[in-house]
Structures are given as structure tokens and as C-alpha cells.
Write a structure and sequence with these properties.
This protein is α/β, with parallel strands linked by helices. The protein folds into three domains: 93 residues, 3-Layer(aba) Sandwich (Udp-n-acetylmuramoylalanyl-d-glutamate--2,6- Diaminopimelate Ligase, Chain: A, domain 1), CATH 3.40.1390.10; 215 residues, UDP N-Acetylglucosamine Acyltransferase, domain 1 (3 Solenoid); 26 residues. The chain is built from four helices and 40 strands. A twelve-stranded mixed beta sheet has the order 8-11-14-17-20-25-28-31-34-37-39-40. Strand 22 and strand 23 form a beta hairpin. The longest helix is centred in the C-terminal third of the chain and has 19 residues.
Length: 343
């Protein structure tokens, strides 16, 4: 699909400097721009590329004043980065504008769905499932019995949603994610083996939640595992049974949260963080990558280390740790000097 500079400027409420009829059909970084591509310039460090780029159209800030001739048509806007982000959203909307039910799908009894459903091939929808408007379920997805999916939800190829799960509006679940698998509940027996404890709860995902590829969110033993509104989960995260994650918290890849831990609002948790079970983590907490959390955390704390402790203390301690060999050598020299004095 092609768009002219005039059409793009209309979407962005921008001003065209150059040829309003020039067309583009793809997006590119400014240093890799070729004929037919659209790019943007917002960071002054990249300004030199605008004089050599072959991109047909470049979005720039209103304040941009070229120091020499440019070959690209400019679209001037208030915020070039924000405008380009908006175009990416439009591009995704167009690219993902699928609808209809493809062949080789299974829709079980008593399923209801709203307008503009897309259901890809080899997907399975269980009994008593309720699906809202503008939902896209890509090929090879599984949706178990009694699942409720809100409006404007996307399940990418291969996502698995177990029974009883509730998904709100405007959510995205990426390929390979598993929502509602059994929690890790086992009890030891007298003969040294383990017996599974039935996990009869569910998972509740509120509105505007994004869940990355191969992330697993376990169902509760009793009650619900809850992912609150606006949460963003990266790829390859493990969320255990009965965990609750507060609104607008973001968690990076390979983090594991053990059972029944409660995480507050507006937290940012780095990659490869390990959090033990039955903890309470406050609001606005920042946890640096590869930290280990073994105790409750108050609001607004910033931590690092394993076990984690206050970031300023960690940084001071780490300076000493890097110099540990020298410090030990200095102590040995002091001991030798002290022994000589004592003689």
C-alpha cells in the first residue's frame, strides 16, 4: 500500500516541504533510507544523515532548519518521534487488519463472539467462550472452556489460554505465551514422592495489558492470579499462582515471581530478577537486573544485588568489592608492619 506525502501530512497534521505527491510504501531508519521509504529525524546526532538519505519522505520537527540542500521531502510536525510512532501504530493497524474465520478452525458449542472477529487456521475455541469485538486470534491458538475475552484483543500465533481465564479489553498476548497453566503446587508424600495439589483458580488479566512471547502466567490454586490494568510483561517471564501485579508495572525478560507475591503499582523490574513467594512489594519500586528479592519492599525503594539491598549501598559496596584483592594485600602489609613493630 502506498501513501503520498500529502496523505501522511494529513494524518499527522503536518506541513509538507517538497513534493506533496511523492509516494512511500515502507519505513526505514534515516541512515538506511531508500527511494520509496519514509523515515524521521528527531535526534540531532543523526542530522548529518538527512543530507545523504535516499528516503523519499522524512518527518522532522517544526524547529528543524536544514544547513544545506536535502533531496528528501520533509513533513514538519511538532514532535517528529511521536509522529513517527503514530505512523507505526497506523502501519500495524493496516498490516493486522484481518477478519473472518479461516478454514480448519474448531468453534465449540455455546460460543459467542462480536463483530470483526479474525480466527486463524488450526485454532481451537472451547465451550462457553465469550469473545468481544475486533478480536484477532491468529493460527494455532488454543482458547479453553469458559474463557472470556474482551474487545480489541490480539492473540498471536501459538498463544494458549487455559480454561476460566478472563482477559480484558485492548490486550496483546504474543506467540507462545501460556495463560492459566497449573501453578507449581505439589505436596510431599510419605514415600518421598510428590502429589499434585489441584489448581482450581483462574487468571484475570485487566485492560491494556501486553504479554510477551513464551511468558507463562499460572492459574491460582484458589481464587485468581491477577494482572492489573496497564501491566507490561516482556518475553520469557514466569508468574506463579496467586501472584498479583499492580497497575502499570513493567517487568523485563527472564524474571520469575514465586507464588502469592503481591507487586504494587508503577514498579519497574529489570531482567533476570528472582522474587520469592508470599512477599509484598510496594508501589513505585525499582529493581535492577539480576537482583534477588527475599523480603518485603516498601514503596519507592530502589534495589540491586542478590540478595538485593539499597542501590546506593550496593554501588558503594561494589567499589570495595572490585578493589578487594588490593585491600587484602594492603591489610597483609599492615599486618607485617605491625608484627615488625611488635618485635
Amino acid at each position: 500500500m502506498k501513501f503520498t506525502a500529502a496523505q501522511i501530512a494529513g494524518i499527522l497534521e503536518g506541513e509538507v516541504i517538497g513534493d506533496p505527491l511523492v509516494e512511500v510504501y515502507k519505513l526505514a531508519k534515516i541512515e538506511e533510507g531508500v527511494a520509496g521509504s519514509l523515515t524521521f529525524l528527531s535526534n540531532p546526532k543523526y542530522e548529518n544523515y538527512i543530507y545523504s538519505t535516499q528516503a523519499s519522505i522524512t518527518i522532522v520537527n517544526h524547529s528543524f532548519d536544514p544547513k544545506s540542500d536535502v533531496n528528501t521531502t520533509l513533513i514538519k510536525v511538532q514532535d517528529a518521534y511521536g509522529a513517527f510512532t503514530r505512523l507505526l501504530e497506523v502501519y500495524n493497524e493496516v498490516k493486522r487488519n484481518k477478519s473472518g474465520i479461516e478454514q480448519f478452525t474448531i468453534i465449540s458449542d455455546n460460543v459467542s463472539y462480536g463483530e470483526n472477529l479474525y480466527l486463524g487456521s488450526f485454532s481451537y475455541i472451547g465451550v462457553n467462550v465469550v469473545i468481544g469485538d475486533n478480536v484477532k486470534i491468529y493460527p494455532n491458538c488454543y482458547v479453553g472452556d469458559n474463557v472470556h475475552i474482551g474487545n480489541n484483543v490480539t492473540l498471536f500465533a501459538g498463544a494458549k489460554v487455559y480454561s476460566e481465564t478472563v482477559i480484558g479489553n485492548h490486550c496483546v498476548i504474543h506467540s507462545g505465551a501460556i495463560i492459566g497453566a497449573d501453578g507449581f503446587g505439589f505436596t510431599p508424600t510419605e514415600d518421598g514422592t510428590y502429589k499434585a495439589v489441584p489448581q482450581i483458580g483462574n487468571v484475570i488479566i485487566e485492560d491494556h495489558v501486553d504479554i510477551g512471547s513464551c511468558t507463562t502466567i499460572d492459574r491460582a490454586t484458589l481464587g485468581s492470579t491477577i494482572i492489573r490494568r496497564g501491566v507490561k510483561l516482556d518475553n520469557q517471564i514466569q508468574i506463579a499462582h496467586n501472584v498479583e501485579i499492580g497497575e502499570n508495572t513493567a517487568i523485563a525478560a527472564q524474571t520469575g515471581v514465586a507464588g502469592s507475591t503481591k507487586i504494587g503499582k508503577n514498579c519497574i523490574i529489570g531482567g533476570q530478577v528472582g522474587i520469592v513467594g508470599h512477599l509484598i512489594i510496594g508501589n513505585n519500586v525499582r529493581i535492577q537486573a539480576q537482583s534477588g528479592i527475599g523480603k518485603n519492599i516498601k514503596d519507592d525503594e530502589v534495589l540491586q544485588g542478590s540478595p538485593a539491598f539499597h542501590l546506593p549501598d550496593y554501588n558503594k559496596s561494589y567499589v570495595h568489592f572490585k578493589n578487594l584483592t588490593k585491600i587484602a594485600s594492603d591489610i597483609d602489609e599492615l599486618k607485617k608492619s605491625a608484627n615488625q613493630i611488635n618485635k
